[in-house]
Specification:
Helix content: 25-40%
Order of helices and strands: HEEEHEHEHEEHEHEHEEHH
Radius of gyration: 22 Å
CATH class of the largest domain: Alpha Beta
Structural class: alpha/beta
InterPro entries: Solute-binding_3/MltF_N
Distance between the termini: 60 Å
Keywords: Signal
Signal peptide: 1-26
CATH architecture of the largest domain: 3-Layer(aba) Sandwich
Largest sheet: 9 strands, mixed
Shape: globular
Protein name: Amino acid ABC transporter substrate-binding protein (PAAT family)
CATH topology of the largest domain: D-Maltodextrin-Binding Protein, domain 2
Domain Solute-binding protein family 3/N-terminal: 33-262
CATH superfamily of the largest domain: Periplasmic binding protein-like II
């Protein structure tokens, strides 16, 4: 009897170990759950509609989570703290209209999910109307903290503006994109650089008090879903799920809905 009991306990232990291995293989912090770090104040990618989270990023997450058999939820964080939060195990992945950049890939892994670029916004009655990034010379430009354009505009200011005898670009950073727009409406900055899709939404939500002045897409780049460095299990699960929603047409339908550019 003792031998049978011993074998039964041993068998259950092996079974439990197997379940634990399967849970770990999913690559999520909690079995069956997928927690996404996102700044939920950034339409059309992620924002609140009442108590509901809406936008391209949560809609795409729902499609991917369904393919992976996971229940998705969201953790609202400032954009500048998302990658740090990922490294600190606050969430399983980051999805917040974040460009895939070399400096980010040094500390996290990424799967591409769409392509877009930037636009310049000014107030409706602004005396300046910058059509390209070079027209920002001599202006005070507002940016959300953590965006890649801080570096881009700094380099442009040195290599083009100052080299050609134009005024430097003065960059002021704010905790979130809506706060940049408010600063512009208050006259604290003269222009705002933002992801094109978000810029269109800000124009709509301010009822035309701001407008897009740029005439073409700037700094085209690829948006990425970020994972903690070395989490191969979750990254691979995402890649498989992405391939499945591309095959069934749901990815292309969502891309068209939000007027983004697909990734191969």
């Amino acid at each position: 009897m003792k031998k049978i009991t011993s074998k039964l306990v041993s068998g259950l232990s092996l079974l439990a170990a197997g379940v634990m291995c399967q849970t770990a293989a999913a690559g999520t912090l909690t079995e069956g759950k997928l927690v996404i770090g996102m700044e939920i104040s950034y339409p059309p990618f992620g924002s609140y509609d009442g108590d509901k989270i809406v936008g391209f990023d949560p809609e795409l997450t729902a499609l991917l989570a369904a393919k992976m058999g996971l229940e998705e939820s969201y953790s609202d964080n400032k954009f500048s703290g998302l990658i740090l939060g990922l490294g600190a195990n606050k969430f399983d992945a980051v999805m917040s209209a974040m460009y895939i950049k070399e400096e980010r890939l040094k500390i996290a892994d990424a799967v591409p999910y769409a392509r877009t670029g930037a636009a310049i916004m000014v107030t409706k009655d602004s005396p300046v109307s910058p059509a390209t990034d070079k027209d920002l010379c001599g202006l005070t430009v507002g940016l959300a903290q953590g965006t890649s354009w801080v570096k881009e505009l700094g380099e442009l200011s040195k290599s083009y503006c100052l080299e050609n005898g134009k005024g430097a670009i003065t960059v002021q950073e704010y905790p979130s994109a809506p706060e940049v727009t408010q600063a512009m409406l208050s006259g604290n900055v003269q222009a705002q650089v933002e992801v094109a899709g978000a810029a269109l939404m800000f124009v709509e939500r301010t009822k035309g008090r701001v407008k897009i002045s740029s005439t073409e897409l700037m700094y085209p780049n690829t948006l990425g879903i970020y994972f903690k460095k070395g989490n191969i299990e979750l990254k691979s699960a995402y890649e498989k799920a992405m391939a499945e929603i591309k095959a069934d047409g749901s990815y292309d339908a969502l891309i068209r809905k939000y007027e983004l550019t697909p990734v191969n």
